[in-house]
Amino acid sequence: MPTMADVARSAGVSVATVSHVLNGTRPVLPHTRQAVLDAIDELGYTPNTLARSLVTSRTRSIGLAVSAISNPYFTEILQGVEAAALEKGYGLLIADPHDDPVHEQRVVRLLHERRVDGVIVAPSAHPDDLVAYLTRHAVPTVLLDRAVDTTAGTTPRFDQVCAENADPTARLVTHLAELGHRRIGLVAGLPGLSTTGERINGYRYGLAAAGLPYDERLVVHGDSDAGGAERATARLLSLAAPPTALVSANNAMTIGALRTLRSRGLTVPGDIALCCFDDFAWADLFSPRLTAVAQPSRELGATAVRVLLERLAEPERPARTLRLPCSFVHRTSCGCPEEPEKGTVA
């Protein structure tokens, strides 16, 4: 079995240089790095990861804990995390906390016990025990998608990577108001999640910007899943003065809202307009096509990896929160006519 010394002799460099290439511990000239990689490939050298971890106290692995991995949004985040981790030579251990605070702490503890170098976590609605565990054990952590310690003027305890939530939601509301809607309902997410609170705030900002009053009866919680959204949408439709337009606060709840509207024989946007937070691959295939806020999901995952590796390199650096912008995808479920494709005559 070839050794690191064999690789060094073949590449014409020192063993230390081979180590720097493998571990990324020091910059190496591109042609030297390529010579080492070519020697590794030619000799079939496989680094002894276990032995290296005993020496460096690093396993070059990252723990990822996100709920609803089957959700297309989190699937794309996972793809971003995996690609960025592999590019930097890190493996990935994945767990699903199921948005349950008890299970969440259990799976994060298991990841920690497997000696991952750090964790990326999308926290539950009640993350106090999780935060206490991560703080007590000084686990290098990046909170993903959902933030904690967001009170104005406070410093976050952990690095956080999230999308903008309030302004994009406000954009959906003001767009519907511009189309003449005065009763706009919101199917909000699970209470306690930072994304839920931020999107409710954005809904209220949008109403205020449009000069519309806030009516708490028009805000119902769909608990971030399709079943909850079905029930929530039914409650909105049962009001004495039901909304003429809906904003759904995530992709799973959009599916639930559409199911309820179809079961009531209501058409979109003929009977009720619909805009949604979260774009997804088949949103453009619905009839009508869904007007949505698109989150930079893969970029969120890749950024979380970058921030975690920076944390590992500089453990004493102050924690920070990064917010990535979303984009407004204008289609037809809001009630706007189909826009002509580029190159065609309207």
Write up what this structure looks like.
This protein has 346 residues and is an alpha/beta fold. The chain has twelve helices and twelve strands. The chain is elongated.
Brief descriptors of the model:
12 helices; six-stranded parallel β-sheet; elongated
How can the largest sheet be summarized? 6 strands, parallel
Strand content: 5-15%
Sketch the topology as an H/E string, one letter per element.
Answer: HHHHEHEHEHEEHEHEHEHEEHEE
SS-based class:
alpha/beta
Q: Rg, please?
A: 24 Å
End-to-end CA span: 68 Å
How many DSSP helices?
12
What's the total count of β strands?
A: 12
In terms of quaternary structure, the protein is: single chain
Helix content: 40-55%
Strand order of the largest sheet: 2-1-3-4-5-11
The outline comes out as elongated
Summed over residues and divided by their number, the pLDDT gives a mean of 89
Report low-confidence residues grouped into runs of 5 or more: 341-346
Short characterization:
With 346 residues, this protein is an alpha/beta fold.
